[in-house]
Amino acid sequence: MGITVRNVSKRFGEFVALDEVSLEIPNGSLTALLGPSGSGKSTLLRVIAGLEEPDAGEVVISGEDKTRTPPQRRGVGFVFQHYAAFKHMTVWENVAFGLEIRKRPKEQIRKRVGELLELVQLAGFAHRYPAQLSGGQRQRMALARALAIEPEVLLLDEPFGALDATVRKELRSWLRRLHEEMPVTTVLVTHDQEEAMEVANEIVVMNHARVEQVGTPEEIYESPASEFVMSFVGPVTRMRDALIRPHDVEILLDGDDSTVPAAVDGVLHLGFEVRVHLRLSGGEDLWAQIPRRTARELDLKPGDRVHVRASRSRTFA
Amino acid sequence: MSGGMLGRGVAITYLSLVVLIPLAAVAWASGEGGPGEFWSAVTTPEALSALRLTFGAALAVVAINAAMGTLIAWVLVRDSFRGRGLVNSIIDLPFALPTIVASLTLLVLYGPGSPVGIDVAYSPVAVVVALLFVTLPFVVRAVQPVLMELDTDMEEAAASLGAGRFTIFRRIILPNLAPAIFSGAGLSFARSIGEFGAVVLVTGNIPFETQVASVYIFGRIEGGDIPAAAAVSVVLLAFSLLALVGMNVLQGRWLRHEG
Ligand SMILES: Nc1ncnc2c1ncn2[C@@H]1O[C@H](COP(=O)(O)OP(=O)(O)OP(=O)(O)O)[C@@H](O)[C@H]1O
Ligand SMILES: [Mg+2]
């Protein structure tokens, strides 16, 4: 059940946008497709929705092969980054659109649209046009419109990408709550690792038209499968051949045989944490992120000689 | 006096000199003999016939242009084919060509001895064909930029909600193009009811048959009957204004829900 993508490839001319992508998205999950710009996230989402036809491979939704099914008959709700609001229709008409296409009875449409507007907190805005809404309201309208057809899967392409940071944060937690109330299989595209970690219970990391890793936010963060994943999902610094998270760099005043001598290059106060730039004896740079209290105890100043140790680090072939 | 007011003053004076005063003069000339004379001048059988032909042909032209102009704009924007750039530049030809040349071309092409075997010269059909030729660019050029700006997201959203191609066209694309179609159609109408050069050769100007209002006016002036010419002119003027005002009102209503 859920969504299965099997060996899907897609080229645009010579350019390979998806390279034999396989993916299993469990029923009822909220999955984030995470990856840098151009990695093929939107293309994969559009292939699942039927808006783009793959050159090879198959797409199975709820156990049915939908590879050749047009978007109209996939039962997929799609939310676009730039809302794709029907600008000549009111909020009400936008949300009712899919139901009218399905020729549902008037009374049923009225009831369902009312409920959906309630759900996305737009009940008072039914008769406004999209141009009279804020970005966040427009996006909630787009979500209600996609949910109206009771889709088997909900696909969101960077739904909060065009919104400012505060509204983004609000909508993220709202989306999480919504998904708990109404567990439709949902795939959310984002290039923001924090957003993926915060919203999704499963993350698919993409890079260069391929899937790099699939896992829970914790798995992805704690045991990244590649150097790319490790550096994409959080800050990294390098110590010799190993990659290390800056908050796994320990700074000590006295060395032992597990430490490496280093010199303090600079100290930056970031509020809650302090970033320390260091230079190893071999001349390599590295940085550490340490709690404010630890920083105060160490009382570091540029030029100080210290010793560093990686409490956890990883080496990739 | 602020710069804004100066600008406005100059603009209004200029418009008055170029547009309003001549129009007022025509209106005044038409009313010289009083309303009774005005009415009888525009209701002579010959004048009525010319007006009827003019408006009938203009309405036919508007309907055809609205449909074909939209179709041409669609093909130019959404299709890619060899020679699209060439077709695109040909669209403006009717504007660039002196209308009398257009009329001559049409006469050669669709007149007696037509190389394509179509002889419609000296018939009401010739009026419509000539008007279609000179008004071709209006709807195409009004719709084209709107269609280019229309992002396909809306259409894809409609498709994922279950709408088929025809429904998408009718419920998503057409409503977004409608203001542009109306605007192009309004201009075609205004241009059609006043066109002289393009129709004068190919129609033969047979009274009660192929004589349009502008040619009728020309005939009255030649015959020295200025008040009659002015009276019919005022009727054309009034309808042109009505078309343009109606167009603006409709557009204003549409633009209100645009962002
Ligand atoms: N219709 C198209 N024609 C040609 N190339 C395309 C088309 N759609 C996408 N591409 C290319 O495919 C690659 C992947 O695009 P895609 O939109 O899937 O990336 P993305 O991961 O969603 O990136 P972003 O985060 O910037 O949205 C890009 O390099 C893009 O230029
Ligand atoms: Mg994208």
UniProtKB/TrEMBL annotation, chain A:
Q: What Gene3D superfamilies does this protein's entry cite? A: 2.40.50.100, P-loop containing nucleotide triphosphate hydrolases (3.40.50.300)
Pfam families assigned: ABC_tran (PF00005), TOBE (PF03459)
The ABC transporter domain sits at 3-233
Q: What Enzyme Commission number(s) does the record list for this chain?
A: 7.6.2.9
Query: What PROSITE patterns does the record tag this protein with?
Result: ABC_TRANSPORTER_1 (PS00211), ABC_TRANSPORTER_2 (PS50893)
A single MF term (Gene Ontology): ATP binding
| Keyword annotations | ATP-binding, Nucleotide-binding, Sulfate transport, Translocase, Transport
Is Translocase given among the entry's keywords? yes
Report the transmembrane regions from the record.
none
Keyword Zinc-finger set for record: no
> Which cellular component appears as one GO term in the record?
ATP-binding cassette (ABC) transporter complex
* PANTHER family per UniProt: SPERMIDINE/PUTRESCINE IMPORT ATP-BINDING PROTEIN POTA, SPERMIDINE_PUTRESCINE IMPORT ATP-BINDING PROTEIN POTA
Name the UniProt record assigns to this protein? ABC-type quaternary amine transporter
Organism, as annotated = Rubrobacter taiwanensis
